[in-house]
Write a structure and sequence with these properties.
Layout: H1 3-34, H2 37-47, H3 58-108, H4 120-129, H5 137-161, H6 166-174, H7 180-205, E1 212-216, H8 225-230, E2 234-236, E3 252-256, H9 259-262, H10 269-282, H11 296-314, H12 323-328, H13 332-339, H14 341-348, H15 367-370
Antiparallel strand pairs: 1-2, 1-3
Helix pairs in contact: 1-3, 1-7, 2-3, 3-4, 3-5, 3-7, 5-6, 10-11, 13-14
């Protein structure tokens, strides 16, 4: 595989792991919110103990309004705890995602690159200042909090008006219609925004190295027309659309290197040693430890050979691929982590359809696992 292909595949893998991480983070937020459920349920049962059937007198309405006021205060308080966890995780993610991006690129390229890494303060400021789908991370939490409180109030009011039992009303609030789905959608989108915008800061700091980027979309039946139409397109670094382009967007951008532009840079130690060995063997020379020890008449020939080989190893623009094709090339351990062991075995045997893959994420992943894999 060429460097460009390795970088693309590894960064797409990181994008998939980011989705799993976001799923786990959204679950942590829901778990924090759940800590108030028992208290709210107890107060609601007490409020509805008179077995009201849709008609409230003035005293009961006052009690209901007081309940709503306390519900709002209680829920806002627990959302503040969730907000703190969310923002702290995103700040860590902004730094760790750039560290991983840097590691992936340096490991894949056969040449030495001198690069600058954005400061921790700059990366963490992305979380508080940058917009993801029109809102900052803090504003998204505020929106979720408002929607959550409004959802609870609406469930109680409509339940009373419809003559539902207390158990039915409570189930409508804390059962399968809990706000977890909306929370997960927002968390996935914001996580994608932090990862992609943090990378853009890294590219900006190293514009002398990163000239081009390729838009990469997960190609399956869930891919939006917008992302599918952009898949494979090449943009100047920092120009063009940067994911997420919509809620639950799974697209990303990966750097694309022109092999000929980097071929004059020094090769890393392992590659230089390998190239020297191959050149000597192909030309019937004894093996040497450095270019300087080659016979004078062979040095320019070696330089041309080295330049051609490095350009070839870096490669051209990676070809488009489907998600299923890409996943088949990943490790068994990665397939197991993403699909679950049983489904992964079926996938390897060709007995599972990945058309609805995104809904099939069965595992969650922590930030520790997501970083420096």
């Amino acid at each position: 595989m060429t460097s460009n292909e390795i970088i693309r595949d590894d960064l797409v893998e990181y994008e998939v792991l980011s989705i799993l991480y976001a799923k786990g983070l959204s679950k942590s937020i829901v778990d924090i919110l759940r800590t108030t459920d028992a208290t709210i349920e107890l107060r609601l049962r007490k409020l509805l103990s008179s077995d009201v059937k849709g008609v409230f007198d003035s005293k009961q309405w006052k009690r209901l309004l007081l309940f709503f006021d306390n519900l709002s205060k209680e829920r806002k308080k627990v959302w503040k705890k969730a907000e703190k966890t969310f923002l702290k995780e995103l700040a860590l993610l902004s730094v760790l995602s750039v560290e991983e991006f840097d590691r992936i690129v340096r490991k894949a390229l056969p040449v030495v690159i001198t690069r600058s890494v954005p400061t921790k303060d700059l990366l963490e400021s992305i979380v508080s200042n940058r917009l993801v789908q029109g809102r900052t991370a803090l504003e998204w939490v505020g929106r979720l909090s408002e929607n959550d409180i409004a959802r609870m109030r609406a469930s109680i009011q409509s339940g009373i008006a419809s003559g539902l039992s207390t158990d039915q009303i409570i189930n409508s609030i804390f059962g399968t219609n809990y706000a977890g789905g909306q929370i997960e959608s927002v968390v996935k989108t914001v996580v994608s925004g932090v990862v992609n915008q943090s990378r853009q800061e890294y590219l900006k700091e190293n514009s002398d190295i990163f000239g081009k980027e390729q838009f990469v979309a997960v190609l399956d039946s869930r891919t939006t027309i917008l992302c599918a139409s952009l898949d494979g397109k090449i943009y100047d670094a920092g120009e063009g659309p940067v994911p997420p382009l919509h809620m639950n967007c799974r697209s990303t951008r990966v750097p694309y290197f022109d092999g000929s532009a980097l071929s004059d840079r020094p090769a890393n130690t392992a590659v230089e040693k390998e190239l020297l060995s191959d050149f000597c063997e192909n030309n019937g020379l004894r093996h040497v430890s450095s270019r300087e020890k080659l016979p004078h008449s062979y040095k320019k020939r070696y330089d041309a050979y080295r330049k051609k080989e490095i350009a070839s190893r870096i490669g051209t623009v990676p070809a488009r691929t489907t998600y299923s094709e890409w996943l088949r090339k990943r490790s068994v351990a990665f397939q197991n982590e993403v699909l679950g062991k049983t489904r992964a075995e079926l996938f390897r045997k060709g007995k599972i359809d990945l058309a609805r893959f995104v809904d099939s994420f069965g595992n969650v992943i922590t930030l520790d696992k997501l970083s420096i894999r």
